[in-house]
Amino acid sequence: MMVLSENDVLLAQSGNEEAFIRLIRNCESSLYRVAKGILKEELDCGDAIQETILKSYHSISKLKNPAYFKTWLIRILINECNDMLKKKHKSYSLNNIENLAEPQKAENEFDELRSAISELNEKHRMVVVLFYFEDCSIKDIAQVLNIREGTVKSRLNRARALLASYLNQENEEGRDDNGPLKI
């Protein structure tokens, strides 16, 4: 994992495009994981990340503290993803509803967990993605989401309980009369 250079942030703020590109490259995987945790659709994730990069490029000079570049960038991404969700919610087609009814085929061992996370509502899903996939601290999550640290902790606890319940329910449904998990 590469560490962001505050010097690169300062250079990018003064108009250095190479420094900005280095910063974005260092944050690429984090941006993708956060976007995927919110949006799910690959094309939507790409669009949100692209818009985030564009918006951050045009407004990087407004960033007050270079040490918070990644937090600032993720906040822009979260806002972009939320805007996309609002727009999609307004124009949900019947075709999309039919596609949701089709069971997804398991691609790897983490599909069950991903499925469980996708069942969480947005506020719980967001803290799970930031805490477990982005290794953000409680304090950083509170800052990114503009909520209290106690709220982050309670959402994480609630999300854990919901995930455990969902995964236990899935496991119970996957068992036959003899007890082992059906494959």
Can you offer a commentary on this structure?
It is a single chain. With 183 residues, this protein is mainly alpha-helical. The chain has two domains: 1-102, RNA polymerase sigma factor, region 2, helix turn helix motif (Rna Polymerase Sigma Factor, Chain: A); 108-183, Winged helix-like DNA-binding domain superfamily/Winged helix DNA-binding domain (Arc Repressor Mutant, subunit A), CATH 1.10.10. Helix content is 73%, strand content 0%. It is built from nine helices and no strands. It has helices at 6-13, 17-39, 42-59, 69-90, 94-101, 111-119, 122-133, 138-145, 149-173. Helix 6 crosses helix 9 and helix 8 (138-145) packs across helix 9 (149-173). Residues 91-109 and 175-183 have low confidence and may be disordered.
Q: Characteristics of this structure?
A:
single chain, 183 residues, mainly alpha, Rna Polymerase Sigma Factor, Chain: A, Arc Repressor Mutant, subunit A, 9 helices, 0% strand, disordered C terminus
Mean pLDDT over all positions:
80
The CATH architecture of the largest domain is: Orthogonal Bundle
Reported for the largest beta sheet, the result is: none
Helix and strand composition category:
mainly alpha
Low-pLDDT windows of residues: 91-109, 175-183
CATH superfamily (homologous) name of the largest domain: RNA polymerase sigma factor, region 2, helix turn helix motif
Shape: elongated
